[in-house]
Design goal:
heterodimer, A: about 150 residues, mainly alpha, 2 domains, 6 helices, about 0% strand, B: about 500 residues, two-stranded antiparallel ribbon, 22 helices
């Protein structure tokens, strides 16, 4: 965990630097009349300070005996997460051109592998139920103007 | 007498067929998500938030509040029967509840937990009803410096009590503040951090951030870990506790209710912390602390009472000061804002139907939950048999439809997915998303109050320390910030006294 904390602290320092840099470009004002950049600049600086504290804590934990063997969060299969995120990204891109029913059907079908790796037939039925059922519920019953796509246009 | 007449008005609102239906629906859904691990109240409230757009504000808040306190009831069932806490606030119930179930005393544990939850929930509602109106009247005396000091204290408490590392809690709060600054600045209206993207000029929609962090984020975490839990099933023999068990549980129920109520009022406090603190207190007060973890009824009664009382009392800062104390309450705050209702000191007097309707619905909801929980225990346990592979696609699809329906925009769907990825990363790095969400909602209020205070005082920072209310709040905030250093100094000093030669 300490290694991850160290990396997180570095990333946060970069974020804080970027925020403070951009806030400095905004009208800063003064203490008597703070401008739009005043609070963001100070918040960026605070974040940088906190990131340094986290980095120090991580360094201390790394130097502690037995630190390299300690693991706070059990490791999982991160590839499933990446696959699901890719599927979700594609869904966002396909929603307008393909429409809700088709893109949701494909998303649920794609999700079967990351979530369970289940059989194709049950995945097909689940995808049909999720896309058709939610379209009926939201678009037809609740009147949400979901994109119909070429299938229902 | 006036309170009773207002409460009567509240019951007239809550007892309409529509509101009764929303109260039942909220309690039912709340119990279900309390039972199911991997889907917490913030995720569910975020999921259902878009559905509430089309219903009246009082009904919306009755539904969402029902989900929140209903989850506290549901979480205990699986903790006791299956050693699976459906809710973080029920983790501690596993210790003695499951031990009781293994000894064949599951019925007693479930009965004490359900009745205790009902009593504590009712104590919480009475406290909310009695304390909220005078507190709201007191808050009307607050000017910008008092609000700024209160919000600073709120942020400190979120970091301090939010669970896990304090540094990480503050980091999340700082990130939340920065996210809240995207869009137009609250005083002058000039754009900040929008990078020329027109959609960002109104800032990030809070609902999208919450749905991404809690809805998609939780699914991603569960998908990564997806390990089927090993379940040791147990038999439920009747749902009655003996007279001795009730006698042993009664003081713990009373202490848990009061302690939970007190902790729930604090920003960042809430159900999880109150359940742990009340368990620790009971163990400390017990003449036989060695029984704890082996099936002590007090170890079930106290935390269950505490988490229910805390769930109810956490509405106090929201309804009186406009400050949400935890992620679920922040989402209810957002729901009220969407309906054009600003929670705060004026809510009680200007929107009495919302305030008193909610209070009355809580009495009804607690009674409904008692009826729902005990006879339907077998149904709730069977709910756990629904595979996550079936549940997950529905959660994701609900979140995505919800995100789309906010503005009928694909951009919002993309934003939600991006925040989902951030939510997974945050949890992966052992950070908590709740302080981020709270700071994001408190941020614009804090900035406006801070800048107004500085303009009003002509840049004199002493404005936060010269006015008595602001000074008290700031002193508490500073004390909280410095508490780790003070604790370390005190420990060093004590070690020095104990270790010093020739002192004994």
């Amino acid at each position: 965990m300490a290694r991850r904390d160290g990396i997180a602290a570095l990333v946060l320092l970069l974020v804080a630097g970027a925020v403070s840099h951009q806030a400095a470009a905004l009208p800063f004002g003064s203490v008597t009349n703070p401008g739009p950049g005043f609070v963001p600049w100070w918040t960026g600086l605070t974040l940088a300070g906190l990131a340094l504290v986290l980095a120090t804590q991580a360094l201390r934990a790394l130097r502690a005996p037995g630190a390299r063997r300690a693991r706070a969060v059990p490791a999982g299969d991160w590839r499933r997460v990446v696959r699901l995120l890719v599927a979700l990204g594609l869904y966002a891109l396909a929603l307008d051109p393909l429409g809700y029913p088709i893109s949701t059907f494909l998303l649920v079908l794609l999700m079967r592998r990351p979530t369970s790796g289940g059989a194709l037939l049950s995945g097909f039925a689940l995808a049909l139920l999720a896309s058709g059922g939610t379209y009926l519920l939201f678009a037809v019953w609740l009147g949400v103007p979901l994109p119909p796509g070429p299938l229902l246009r | 007498m006036e309170i009773l007449s207002l409460l009567g008005h509240g019951f007239a609102i809550a007892l309409t067929p529509t509101n009764l239906m929303y109260c039942f629906l909220g309690s039912f859904i709340g119990t279900a998500i309390g039972v199911l691990p991997g889907l917490g109240p913030p995720a569910t409230i975020a999921l259902l938030l878009p559905i509430t757009y089309g219903i009246p504000p009082t009904s919306a808040v009755i539904l969402l509040a029902g989900i929140f306190y209903g989850a506290m009831y549901g979480g205990s069932t699986t903790s006791i029967l299956l050693n699976i806490p459906g809710e973080a606030a029920s983790v501690v119930t596993c210790l003695d509840g499951y031990a009781m179930a293994r000894q064949g005393r599951a019925g007693a544990a479930l009965a004490v937990s359900a009745v205790g939850s009902f009593i504590a929930g009712t104590v919480g509602v009475v406290g909310l009803m009695v304390l909220a109106p005078p507190l709201a009247a007191f808050a009307l005396r607050f000017g910008a410096p008092e609000y700024a000091a209160l919000l600073v204290l709120g942020l400190m408490m979120v970091g301090y009590l939010g669970g896990g590392s304090m540094t990480k809690g503050f980091i999340m709060a700082a990130l939340g503040l920065l996210l809240g600054m995207v869009g137009l600045d609250p005083i002058m209206g000039s754009p900040r951090f929008t990078y020329g993207v027109f959609k960002l000029s109104e800032g990030f929609e809070f609902v999208l951030v919450a749905m991404g962090l809690f809805g998609i984020g939780e699914v991603l975490v569960n998908v990564e870990r997806s390990v089927a839990p090993e379940v040791l099933r147990t038999k439920i023999r009747g749902l009655l506790a003996s007279r001795e068990e009730w006698r042993a549980a009664a003081p713990s129920l009373a202490r848990g209710s009061l302690l939970g109520f007190g902790i729930g009022v604090l920003p960042g406090g809430g159900a999880v912390i109150s359940s742990f603190v009340s368990y620790a207190l009971e163990k400390k007060l017990s003449r036989h602390p060695e029984r704890f973890g082996q099936g002590a009824i007090e170890g079930v009664a106290a935390p269950e009472a505490a988490n229910n009382a805390a769930a109810t009392s956490s509405f106090i800062p929201l309804l009186t000061l406009g400050i949400p104390g935890n992620a679920s309450i922040a989402l209810i705050f957002a729901a009220l804002l969407i309906h054009g209702i600003r929670p705060g000191p004026l809510l009680v007097s200007q929107q009495p139907e919302v305030f008193w309707g909610l209070i009355a619905s809580m009495y009804i909801g607690n009674a409904m939950l008692l009826v729902l929980n005990l006879p339907l225990i077998r149904f709730w346990v069977r709910l756990l048999e629904v595979p996550y592979a079936i549940l997950a696609p529905f959660i994701v699809v609900f979140v995505l439809v919800g995100a789309y329906s906010v503005n009928n925009s694909v951009f919002d769907v993309g934003t939600t997915i991006a925040f989902g990825a951030l939510g997974w990363l945050i949890r992966k790095l052992d950070f908590e998303p709740a302080p981020l969400v709270l700071a994001m909602i408190l941020g614009p209020q804090l900035e406006a109050a801070l800048r107004r205070s500085l303009i009003y005082s002509r840049g004199d920072l002493l404005v936060f320390f010269e006015r008595p209310i602001a000074a008290t709040l700031m002193a508490l905030a500073l004390l909280m910030l410095l508490s780790p250093v003070l604790r370390r100094l005190l420990a060093r000093r004590l070690r020095g006294i104990v270790g010093a030669p020739g002192r004994d």
